Amino acid sequence: MWSLLEPIPSFYRHSKKAVRHKVNDTQIFLAVFAAAAVIFALTPLGIAWLWARLFSPHKPGPSKNAVYECGLDTQPIGWIQFKAEYYLYAIVFLVFDVEVLFLLPFAVAFKELSIGASVAMLIFILLLVEGLAWACWKGILKWHQYD
Prior knowledge:
Elements: H1 10-13, H2 25-55, H3 85-108, H4 115-138
């Protein structure tokens, strides 16, 4: 194919007919590969849908439509108030737990690192301290006693 900076080839200039784009092997391969991907993705779904329509009995009832709670009967009580502090505390724990894994290789190779790597790790540690200070300032780490 020609670019705008090159002169127009002679077969384009003298031809009054529309020039057909020749399909190469790569385009054919990609088209076949895309079609195969769609077929392989949709075939199990179609088989499962046909199996369910043909062989599964459709008998709705109270026991079949009941909510299953790990073998226990469901409790008919309404919504309960769940404290969000549990989630926040767990998320803060996970963040700092994963960050310790990032500090481990730094600690192992501390003597061989350059000044730039040490500065990058210092910035990383300062960001962790900032996150810890924010969590303390917001009161996320305070455990409230509710009666």
